[in-house]
Each structure stands twice: as C-alpha cells, then as structure tokens.
Amino acid sequence: MTSPSSFQPAFQPVKLEHASRLINHGPTVLVTSSDGKRRNIMAAAWSMPVEFTPPRLAVVIDKKTFTRELIQASGTFGVCVPGFAAMDLTFAVGTISGRDADKFERFGIDAVTGPVLGLPLLEKGCAAWMECRLIPEKHTEDAYDTCFCEVVSAAADPRVFNNGHWIFDDSNTDLHTLHHLGAGNFARASGMVKAREIGG
C-alpha cells in the first residue's frame, strides 16, 4: 500500500496555450531524443519560449552532439524540466556522451512514452515535460547550435504546476526547478512571492 507521503500523482496534460510557461523562467532542462533504434538524454542550460500560438521554443544543442544527430534523424525531441530531486542526475547526463553508453541504462532512468511522438520522457524527479517537433532551418543548421521547435504535447506534475501556473512552496521542494550556474553548481527556484499593485 502506498503511503500518502510517497504518493506521486500522475502528470496531468498542460494546455498548449500554457506550454511556454513551463520554461519561461529559464530552468535547466533535459533533452531526450530517439531515432527509433537509439536514444539519448542530455542537459541543456539555454532554452526559452519564442512563440505563444502555436507554442514554439528555442533550445541550444551543440550541433556536434549525439543528441543533435538523433534529432536531425527523427525531427523530434523531448524537453523535460527536472526538479531539485533530480539535480545529481541532471549533472550526470550532462557530463558524458550518449555515443559511449545508453544513459538511460547507465543511470537507471525510467522513461515514459510520449503520447503524440512516442519520445522517451521523464516524470520521476521532474516537474514537467514537452514533446517537440523540430522546425527545420536549413540556413542555420550547419552554422548554429540553436534548435527551434513546436510543442505538440505537454504535461506537468500538478503539485508544482497547476491551472497554467507554477506553485513553488515548502510542500514541493523536490520539484522546484533548477538553474545551472556552471561547474556543477545549481540554484533552485524557491521563495515564490506575489507582487502587489502600486500606484494611483
């Protein structure tokens, strides 16, 4: 029997109109990819929303990486938002190449299958995920590391993202998002406060 303290509710779908909010505060993300035979996961510190409708993102993925190779082959990738509980894993998958080993097997990562694109996605230790379709940019593919994509499905843990908004409080610190500061150092999103109206 599962105790209330260990119960993890299932991820809930996020409306695509709210998908940009999953990364608009600049968290470190995990990028997952698969070409049908091979799969990979890596950490990325630079990502941002660029369009609301349809929801589009920009993620910096070095063009020499194994992840980029799989993305170019499949035209798809996943963006997962790790929580504080996944900090060590986030650092680990960002330090070795997927060409050397299947990082899902090496680090014992349990993946769920995305409902639209069939991508490997993470829920355990993560706050949210998005399935993304690559937007081909022929004039930039060979010159730039930035990948543009359209979000086609999204979901989040309702304990930390609900009704289109983040909730960072003392009840869900393991799901507070991470912000990479370099050299394996991270800051955790916390101390959420609400602004007051000012002026006449």
TrEMBL record:
Any GO MF annotation of the entry: FMN binding
Entry keywords, A to Z: Flavoprotein
InterPro entries tied to this protein: Flavin_Rdtase-like_dom (IPR002563), Flavoredoxin (IPR052174), Split_barrel_FMN-bd (IPR012349)
Transmembrane segments: none
Residue stretches making up the Flavin reductase like domain: 21-163
Superkingdom classification of source: Bacteria
Cofactor requirements of the protein: FMN
Family statement drawn from the similarity comment of this UniProt entry: Belongs to the flavoredoxin family.
PANTHER family cross-referenced by the UniProt entry: FLAVOREDOXIN (PTHR43567:SF1), FLAVOREDOXIN-RELATED-RELATED (PTHR43567)
Record protein name field: Flavin reductase (DIM6/NTAB) family NADH-FMN oxidoreductase RutF
Native organism: Paraburkholderia tropica
